[in-house]
Amino acid sequence: MTSSDKDAFLAIYKEIESDLIADIQKLPALSDSVKQQLIDYYSVCLPYTVPGGKMTRGLTVIKGVEVLKQRKLTDKEYKDAAILGWQVEWLQAFFLVADDIMDGSITRRGSPCWYKKPNVTQDNAINDALILENMIYQTLRRHFKKHPSYVQILELFIDTTFQTEVGQHIDTNGTPYADGKRAPLDLLRFTLDRYQGCVRYKTCYYSFYLSCALALAYCGYDPDTPEGKALYQNAEDICMILGEYFQIQDDVLDAFAPPEVLGKIGTDIEDAKCSWLVCKALELVNDEQKEILMTHYGNHDAEGVKKVKELYRELKMEELFQTYEEEQKKICDDLIAKIEPENFQELFKFLLGKIYKRQK
After folding, report:
1. What percent of the chain is helix, strand and coil (3-state, nearest 5)?
2. Among this protein's residues, is 54 annotated catalytic?
């Protein structure tokens, strides 16, 4: 079993899900009928919200442990790494269930968002997001309570959750609220400086750094030692660059990728998101083009969205992104080549290979 074996990885998911459902069965002071109601509901919720994506975050933990061990993993090591990987996927599920509600999204991974399911609704989905987060800590306690790095692993999840929630706040308030509704659009808030801060916190830590740091922690690397500190710092430095590149890709795909390929309907324009496209466009527009953004950006109006996308095409935003992508690829390649020990480079080559030229 290796980091490329998705079937083996999914089999570990099934074990984790079974344990969590069994926990519900053991809840005290609930009637059998209430327990069954909970079991029936979460037996649908978990497979709907947790697996189903590309699973790159989870598989990266396994790849990281393989790279650091420099050998094939034992069955126990593989299972441990896979369980840690699935906790990153659980964290992703928690964020996405909540994010879809906040953004009013329609689809996710080619299916209706969880809160859009008729038997779920927003009321249940908010609570489900909280339960998904709690399940991470139930699983970590079950499998790693006696592991020497248990506290460090817990702290990584606690810190990453907070960092991502800070990023989510920055993202949600690209256009602030006033009197219970969106304030008038203020294009001055859409700067690349604000965008980079948002991306660092909303995307880079949980989508890239967490998986690498978990592999380091599991393998016993102490961030308080000179060797460990250097490894964690190298991981953070490259993951911040990879994460920004990944998010800019996401912004471009949100605007231009067909929904059937992307697996969701992009809503960044309607939601007045501080995306790379609008920040970069504001550096390029003339007064007439700026008026198009002022008039149509942030409105839930199909014709207005079409006009903004036409402006992006007029400004050749896709071509600008392609140039940026090649520049970032070279920057990443150069940074990776300098990482010590040399075998640790393989983890970041793996990550870069997963996102370079991706279409969804």
Report:
1. 75, 0, 25
2. yes
Residue corresponding to tokens 């911040």: 240
- 194 catalytic? Reply is no
- Are residues 73 and 1 in contact, defined by beta-carbon separation less than 8 angstroms? yes
**201-248 pLDDT tens trace:** 999 999 999 999 999 999 999 999 998 999 999 999 999 999 999 999
Using CA atoms, how far apart are residues 331 and 340, in angstroms rounded to an integer?
Answer: 17
Tell me if residue 271 is catalytic: no
Of 170, 173, 207, nearest to 95 (Cα)? 207
333 is annotated as an active-site residue: no
Q: Please state whether 286 falls in left (phi above 0), alpha (psi between -120 and 50) or beta.
A: beta
Write down the catalytic residue from 80, 100, 251, 254. 251
Q: Are 214 and 84 in contact (CB under 8 A)?
A: yes
Q: Catalytic residue, from 19, 35, 54, 358: name it.
A: 54
103 in active site: yes
Give the chain's radius of gyration (CA, Å): 21
Which tokens go with 224? 């308080």
Number of Cβ within 10 Å of residue 333's Cβ equals: 12
Residue 222 is a catalytic residue: no
